[in-house]
Design brief:
With about 600 residues, this protein is an alpha/beta fold. Helices cover about 65% and strands about 10% of the residues. The chain contains 21 helices and ten strands. Helix 5 packs across helix 12, helix 6 crosses helix 10 and helix 9 runs antiparallel to helix 10. The chain starts with 13 loop residues before the first helix and ends with a helix. The structure holds adenosine-5'-triphosphate (ATP). One of its GO terms (molecular function) is ABC-type transporter activity. Keywords: ATP-binding, Membrane, Nucleotide-binding, Transmembrane, Transmembrane helix, Transport.
């Protein structure tokens, strides 16, 4: 996967982001966990109310304290001190509890979103088709791991912050109004102008810089993961110089984006300091004349300053939290885009399940004695760049074994992709047995994370490490290892339950034999093998096909080696222009253009 400069959408305005934020946020509040979500929400609102009430009480306590001191009223002074002690006794556990509830709320929300996203990512094989929908969803892993966590943390932080700010604004506006109404009017005008200016100047650049930064960080991490996954090939090629320059190049892009962000953040910091400091003297300027005229007590000045500060903080919340807000906007955009695409894929999956016609290949169940039937099949590579087959038919009966041949790049693997449903765009009908009765061995063997047993049982894991469940005793697995000519593997690595990086530890031929074992274990009625024995010697290949003949009724192989022909009853040969020919395997030598071209 290269650079993600393509049509990856970037956020435009806050107005456009808000509905997207709500679309992602409401999933939790209206979803299966809605009771939990709403419970947390109510708890957060109640706690915020208590929090604000405490702040107002503190402001009155402070006022009484200052007035008692300035007027030397000893009894009132100690009363105010006790009031403070009482407030602290309530505030200390309350503030801790607020943090606790907010932390749990963020975690519960994150769990919900990650589970939902992971479900969508693995449903209908979305992890494979994610980028076939015209929108680039770069680094889905980062979106699931990091973006959700940041989205939830920022949303909780900002939502509770906004809630508290609104409440304290309402509460202190009353206090301040009773002291000086003009001060309240001034504050609202000042904050309105400040917020408008901030959003106008800093909104778009900071939002898109945050978006780009997330993208570049994801690209950097992906380049390092690729090195880890392909370390041996890179080491053989001595490709470290090239890989290092790719990693450095991607890091440079992170740094470059980060520098732009820091520059803009510095501008924002300067502006928000000017914005907040320029009002420091304002409350005193308004209240001092009243005090000098004897119209208010001394403590009222400090209360007015305190209330002014609170309202100013509330009204200036957007300015003060603009960095966080623009970060949240970028995370929202990334999550909303991925969710939209996952929803499209889900809808498409449902439509396919319902047997949709038109631009999609229709999949139906085959009836005995037919195991596989392709009728009027027409499809191209994604993006319609290259025709793979044009209105072609073929039928495979029970017991028949088909070898697909043709020049490299003609579309043999693509045909298996279409049959398995990985590529669905096209025309025609494909009849196969039920999905659970088919098994595909892809060209590149895949070794999942886990033990040797996990490698053998893949893609099933439900059997776990039980010893006799479903007749999968260790003895049976060891016998199958002998069948695929890996008799000493379990002993060599230290047993079936040893965990290793199997794609590194096993040779390609060993990985192909492990994959073959999975096929034998699965007992499919129709198997597909895409160059599944290309790394094996001829004797091992013969032994595996012999075992396959016993275990599986019909199979379809893709391969280049002419010696494969004898394990099949028929050959399907790609003959160019999106056409193919099916004929008995015994006629291969006489009929095959491809074979004469020097296959193998
Ligand atoms: N995801 C994809 N997007 C666009 N083109 C693709 C994609 N996958 C494969 N192709 C193209 O489709 C054509 C057929 O590829 P395919 O892998 O089916 O060939 P093949 O006959 O199996 O080749 P080989 O014998 O080398 O394995 C190739 O030209 C390939 O580049």
């Amino acid at each position: 996967m290269g650079e993600w400069e393509g049509p990856s959408p970037t956020p435009q305005t806050f107005a456009a982001i808000l509905p997207k934020w709500w679309k992602v946020a409401k999933l939790w509040f209206y979803g299966d966990d809605k009771l939990l979500a709403r419970g947390y929400l109510i708890a957060a609102v109640v706690l915020s109310l208590l929090y604000t009430w405490l702040l107002v009480t503190i402001s009155y306590a402070q006022r009484n304290f200052s007035t008692a001191m300035s007027e030397k009223r000893v009894a009132e002074f100690y009363q105010a001190v006790w009031m403070f002690v009482l407030i602290i006794a309530i505030a200390a556990p309350l503030f801790a509890f607020v943090n606790f509830v907010e932390g749990r709320l963020a975690l519960a929300w994150r769990i919900f979103l990650v589970k939902k996203m992971v479900r969508g990512y693995f449903a209908n094989r979305a992890f494979f088709t994610l980028n076939q929908y015209g929108v680039v969803v770069d680094n889905p892993d980062q979106r699931i791991c990091d973006d959700i966590a940041s989205f939830v943390a920022s949303s909780v932080m900002l939502a509770t912050e906004v809630l508290r700010k609104i409440m304290s604004c309402v509460a202190f506006a009353g206090v301040l109004w009773s002291i000086s109404p003009s001060l309240v009017v001034y504050l609202f005008l000042y904050a309105g102008a400040g917020t408008w200016f901030t959003t106008w100047v800093f909104g778009k650049p900071l939002m898109s810089l945050n978006f780009r930064l997330l993208q570049k960080e994801g690209d950097l991490r992906f380049s390092l993961v690729r090195v880890r996954e392909n370390n041996e090939s890179i080491a053989f090629y001595k490709g470290e110089g090239r890989e290092k320059s790719i990693v450095s190049d991607r890091f440079d892009k992170v740094v470059f984006t980060k520098i732009s962000k820091i520059n803009w953040a510095a501008g924002l910091g300067l502006w928000s300091n000017v914005y907040s400091y320029s009002t420091i003297l304002v409350p005193s300027l308004f209240t001092a004349p009243l005090y000098f005229a004897g119209m208010i007590e001394f403590g009222v000045i400090s209360q007015a300053s305190y209330a002014f500060g609170r309202i100013e903080a509330a009204l200036g919340a957007i300015v003060a939290n603009f960095q966080e807000i623009s970060g949240l906007a970028a995370q929202t955009e990334r999550l909303a885009v991925m969710m939209d695409v996952l929803e499209d894929i889900e809808r498409e999956g449902d439509a396919n399940a319902a047997g949709r016609q038109g631009q999609h290949i229709v999949h139906l169940e085959s009836q005995s004695p037919v195991v596989l039937q392709l009728e009027g099949l027409t499809f191209s590579t994604p993006g319609d760049k290259q025709y793979i087959c044009d209105n072609q038919d073929v039928t495979l009966l029970q017991g028949e074994k088909l070898l697909i041949v043709g020049p490299t790049g003609c579309g043999k693997s693509s045909l298996l992709r279409a049959i398995s449903g990985l590529w669905s765009r096209g025309k025609g009908t494909i009849r196969t047995p039920d999905v659970s009765s088919m098994f595909f061995l892809p060209q590149k063997p895949y070794m999942p994370l886990g033990t040797l047993r996990d490698q053998l049982l893949f893609p099933t894991s439900a059997w776990g490490s039980g010893h006799d469940e479903a007749n999968l005793s260790d003895a049976k697995l060891l016998a199958l290892l002998r069948t695929v000519r890996l008799p000493g593997l379990a002993d060599r690595v230290g047993g079936l339950d040893v965990e290793m990086d199997w794609s590194q530890v096993l040779s390609l031929g060993e990985q192909q034999r492990v994959a073959f074992l999975r096929l034998l274990l699965h007992r499919a009625s129709l198997a597909f093998l895409d160059e599944a024995t290309s790394a094996l010697d001829i004797n091992t290949e013969a032994a595996l096909y012999e075992a396959l003949n016993v275990a599986v009724g019909s199979y379809v192989s893709v391969g280049h080696r002419p010696q494969l022909v004898k394990y099949h009853t028929h050959v399907l040969e790609f003959v160019g222009n999106g056409s193919w020919l099916k004929y008995p395997a015994s006629e291969f030598d006489a009929r095959s253009q491809y074979g004469k071209g020097g296959a193998g």
